[in-house]
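Q: What would this complex look like in 3D?
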Amino acid sequence: MKRRSYRTSIRRRLLLQLFTMAALLSLAFFLVVRAVAERAAADTQDNILLASATSIADAIYSEQGAVAVDLPYSALSMLGSISEDRVFYRVLIGEETLTGYDDLPLPSPAQGEFETFMFRGEEVRSATVTRTVSSGGSKERATVIVAQTRLGLAAISQRISGMAAVVGFGFLLVATALSLVAAQSALAPLNRMTQSVARRGPDDLRPVDTQTPSELVPLVDALNSFMARLKASLTQSEEFIAEAAHRVRTPLATVRAQAQMTLRRSEKPENKASLRAMIRAVDESSRSAGQLLDHAMVSLRTDQLQDEVFDLVELTQDTVAHLRPTADLKDIAISVELYVETLPIRGDEILMQNALRNVLDNAIKYSPEDSDITVRITEEPRISFVDQGRGFSADDLGDITKRFSRGANVGDIVGSGLGLTIADEVMRAHGGTLEIAPNEEGRGSCVSLVYPRD
Amino acid sequence: MRFARISTRLIAVLLTHLAFALGASAFEIEDRRQYPAEDGARELRIISTADAPVFEPIIRAFQLAHPDVAIDYVIASSTELMKAISEEEADFDLAISSAMDLQTKLANDGFALDYRSEATDALPKWAKWHDQIFAFTQEPAVMVIAEGAFANRPAPRTRDDLIAMLRDNPAEFDGRIGTYDVRISGAGYLFATQDSRNTDSYWRLTEVMGRLNAQLYSGSKAMIEDVAAGRLALAYNVVGSYAAQRLADTPGIRIVPFEDFLSVMLRTALIPKNAQNIEDAGLMIDFLVQLNQREDIEQETYLAPVSAQSLNENYAARPIRLGPGLLVFLDRLKKETFLRNWENAIVQK
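A: Here is my prediction, written as structure tokens for the whole assembly.
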């Protein structure tokens, strides 16, 4: 039972794998979108910074031998058009600051035209443009630095990250829903096949012909071939039992008949005695063989119980009629007490017949000569066989129905101990019970077959 | 440690007050008004360019809503205000100025604190910058004319009309035109620079006014008075709210809004870096930006509250945009060049 929790489920594994893949893809999507968006936003800022610095550099001019700059309005206002970030700028001629924020640091030569650094307590991005200008006949190097804080950039990338997260999560949800559907549809043929096999009756061994995907064809083929073999084996067993019964009983009957005839002709008392012993031994053999075969039949048939309606009263009377000659041999009178007219029940008629025959046969066998056996059929439905035999001791009642188990007081009678076992197995297969009790009216016992109420 | 810090701050506050009381402060103030609170638990120190009579109704209304806040109201010119905050780092809780460029520079250079509230979030985007500068009035630059001088002619509606009229009638307008001395007045400089951006006519107009010996003023108030007194025929680029305020009690003057374009200045507030009472400064900002819900105050102060609707209705109106663009004309070289050009045009040296 505990193993159940460790049982693997294809569906669960499929779902888990699809979900993990979707989660990884969503994460990758989120990271890529964010990286691309941040790069794009940063590039936008860089471009505007560069445009601003370039327009300032373009406005540098020489006047009366001095370099001056006429800061274009758009140079700084364009920076204000995309975000509300703080803006700093500085124009240098050579090493001298011409105008702007004196404390804005010069770019390090290794950094290229863009640089990120801390300025006045905030992270800023700067663009630098250099020009050569002539000042009073000498060439001077003009440097324009324009810097802007990155709060707007942070806000944009935060917004995009948020959006990417939402989209990624949505993607994950959709992918999860789709993988549910995918797992369902992938497992549908398997479920179909399971249902078509589970719906079958116990003796339906036809090959499975449900439409199966190619992956399941080997399994279905294996199943079909297994069922075919099982069917063949069952048929073989049944045939074997019938054949064996026939082959064992017929010669025994011949031997018995010959012995009977010889007994009648024989006059020597010692010959008669040994012939009688022989006839008894043949009877026992025949009976044991019959019981063994019955038991094999019962074992075989209880696995695939037939479900047919038959009359229990009629079956019981047939059985009694069948065994009456055997009883007559011991001068045992069998009386049938009917408390109902008919007793239609559902079950396996052959098995029930086996059960009835074995119980009655047992009763006859263990009853003393010149005694009575009462077969009582009541509505419950219950069939009781009451005899005046030696009965069962209290110790026996528990295991008397076990295979090859016999009562403690029957050492002098030959028997296989299978009779009650067969009856018990048949009753169990039908959901009923075998009850064994002492005879309430005196010596002997009462064996009842109790059939379940519908 | 904590005690030490508190006491240092206490001493600093005391020293500042002392310096203030002794008038030892390096920046010049024009006036100072105290509005004590009923229980006087909290004090909000404001430095502002608005005259006390203009701003007083707002302070009174604010104190009605927040009776426990005492207000110390210091008036200074916009350049002195800038100096107080950026150079002296005086510990005012709120700086209110009509000089948008200087306010922008204060914020850009890191002298302002961030502030956000539901009220500031409701402001139009153009009425705030960087969650540090908040506009609460919109005041157009208008022309004020003396009705007497325009009895026989229509008032010009555009700058080109004005130029044509002045050129055609030099005798009548000689010495009778008033405008800001942009070298002294922050608002005048802001209007002049924005004019120079908006139209090529600006420099022609300035030259024409220079040739007609324009009178130069440091503030709107005196200009309007001279128009009312008949000493001036017209005053160019007067702050509209001041003009509207004087119009009520001054006969013989008229306000002419230009139809080619109308520079609209935004009066703004910011919380300086050294503010002590940030909480009440925030309350005041919330109160100011919600002035558009207080028509009674507008009627008293003639300060038009920020309103996207009224700007949309007047297609000529161009609100001066807050942002780094305003830093351009504060550039040392740029300013030198602009003032030199302006002097050349108007003073006709």
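A: To summarize the key features: The interface with chain A takes residues 107-110, 129-131, 197, 321-325, 327-329, 331-334, 337 of chain B (CB under 8 Å). DSSP finds 15 helices and twelve strands in chain B.
Q: Very helpful, thank you.
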